[in-house]
Amino acid sequence: MNIELLKKYQELDKNYSEFSEKVKNTEQYINYENSLKDFSKKQKEIQDTKEEIKRLCASLPECEEKKNTIQLSLDDIQSKVSQALTLDEVDNIYKKIKKIEDDIYDLMNYEKCLNKLILCEDKNKDNFNQLIFLNKECKSLRDEFGSIYNQSKDVFLKPIETEMKNLCSQLTKEEIATYESLKNSVEKYPYIVDYDGEFCGGCGEDISSEVTKFFTSKDVTCRCPRCQRLLYLK
Ligand SMILES: [Zn+2]
């Protein structure tokens, strides 16, 4: 295994990843990310308001029916009041009046519901205007970040990419596959470290009793039993 080339490759790979990390920490990227979050938040708000409007609308026709029923009951009572002679008839009218009171109370809720609906509609309009504004802002921040990113990419990333490609052509398929598997199994950089005959160059653990027996020559490599890094003799 060409350890020297693999070590160079991992170093370039680290620089490549660091560039992406640095990009994510730039003011332009953070601004763009935040504007995206604001946009999604506004979308969610609009969705919630729409649901609320739907819910309020669904309860309105019911109230309209109630209004008609109250009117009919009032007409009925009016005609019966003048003719009521017995106590039972009066009691009956009293019960009907109580029922109308309950229905009127419901109607007051209807009015509240209507007011809520109007407020929701207003909120919806405001939110929609804000969404249009946020959309414009997102696009402009994305373009601003994109142009800076492309410039930095040309300066920092392209040379790394070229060098990595060059190294890839010198490494075997198996070596590249080993590197990729190391990257997946080792928790953090570096993935290939030296072994001084006693301690792991990555996690620093004393692994002599477990791995020294495998290192019969300089060409031998072995995985650290603690951190899974690839070990080679210094
Ligand atoms: Zn280790």
How does this structure look, described?
- With 234 residues, the protein is mainly alpha-helical.
- It has two domains: 26-158, Helix Hairpins (Orthogonal Bundle); 186-233, no CATH class.
- Helices cover 76% and strands 5% of the residues.
- The protein has five helices and three strands, in the order ααααβαββ.
- The protein has helices at 3-24, 27-81, 87-170, 173-185, 208-211; strands at residues 192-195, 221-223, 230-233.
- A three-stranded mixed sheet has the order 1-3-2, with helices on one face.
- Helix 1 (3-24) runs antiparallel to helix 3 (87-170) and helix 2 (27-81) runs antiparallel to helix 3.
- The chain is elongated and about 120 Å long.
- The two termini are 14 Å apart.
- The mean pLDDT is 91.
- Zinc ion is lined by residues 200, 202-203, 205, 224, 226-227, 229.
What are the main properties of this structure?
binds zinc ion, 2 domains, three-stranded mixed beta sheet, Helix Hairpins, 234 residues, mainly alpha
Give a summary of the structure in a few sentences.
76% of the residues lie in helices and 5% in strands. The protein is mainly alpha-helical and 234 residues long.
Each distinct ligand? zinc ion
Structural class: mainly alpha
What fold name goes in the CATH topology slot of the largest domain? Helix Hairpins
Label the CATH architecture of the largest domain. Orthogonal Bundle
What does the average pLDDT come to? 91
Task: Describe the secondary-structure layout.
Elements: H1 3-24, H2 27-81, H3 87-170, H4 173-185, E1 192-195, H5 208-211, E2 221-223, E3 230-233
